[in-house]
Amino acid sequence: MSVRAATAQEAQFSAEVELPGITNYAPPSSQASPASTTGVDLLLDARLSAEAKTISEGMVWRVFGSEPEQGGKLPLLAIAEGGPTRITLNPGEYLVHAAFGRAGATTRITLGNEARHETMILDAGGLRLEGVLPDKIPMRNDRLRFDIYHAEEDENGERRLILPDVRPGRTVRLNAGTYHIVSNYGDVNATIRADIRVEAGKTTTAQVEHRAAQVTLNLVRGDAGVPLADTAWSVVGPSGEVLAENVGAFPSMILAAGNYTVIAKNKNRVFQREIEIRAGRDTVVKLDAESAEQLDQ
C-alpha cells in the first residue's frame, strides 16, 4: 500500500472520476501539509457490501479537507492505492472518498487524538459483459464493444456515458443500480441495447445476443475471376439509406441480419445486387461484372 500527498497532476486526473458527495475540489496547495508523521492514524478499508470480504487490492483512497479554500473548492490532501491503508493526519474533519473501479463512496470523518478505524461499504458489484450469436456460433470478439451509460435520461433524453469501449469478458466495478448497455458488433448497424442491474457484493454476467454476420464483398469478372481493385462499395438498407461505404477489392463488414442492396462502382461502370444476411452465417458476396445487374450512371 502506498500513501502520499496528492500532486497537482493527480488532482487534475482524478477530476475525471466521479466522486459521490464531492462536487468541487482544488489541486493541493504547495503550502499544504496533508499528512503528518506525528499526527493521528486513520485506518481505512472497504467492502462491496456489508456481508462481503474486505477488498484487498485495487482501491484508490482520496482524502479531502472539509473546509473550502479560496474559490470555494475543497483541497485534495492525500491519495493512497492498494487495499486497506493507514494515513496519518492531524486531528480534524475530513472527507474520504473510496474508489474501486467505477464504484465509489464518500464519507465525512472527524479525527480526534486517538487512531480511528473506518470501514466503508461501497454498495457496489461487478458487471461482466459478453456477446453471443444464435446456435452457439463463435463470435468475433475483436469486433465487439460495449458502452455503459447511466440508466436515467436527462431533460434532453440523453444518458450520461460512464465507460466507453469495454471489451467483452472484462469485469467493470460499478455502484449497485441499473445501467443502460449499448453493444456494438462491428461499426455499421449491429447494435443491441439493454438495461442491466448490478447487485451489491455480486458480479453480474450479462450475455447480449447479436443477430448479425460478417460479409465480404468481391467484384469479379467471370466465375474464376480475381476481385477487381479500386472498387467503391455502398451498402444500402431497406429504406434506401446508405449504411456503409468502402473502397477495395474485398472489404469486410458486419451487418445486422436482414436484406440489403450492394452497389459496386469500378471505373465507369456501376453494378448492384440484392443480398440477405443471416444471423451468425458469415458469407462472401460476389458480383460478377459480366452478369450482375448494371446501372446507368
TrEMBL record:
Its organism's taxonomic lineage begins at: Bacteria, Pseudomonadati, Pseudomonadota, Alphaproteobacteria, Hyphomicrobiales
Give the protein name, as stated in the record. Uncharacterized protein
Identify the species of origin. Oricola cellulosilytica
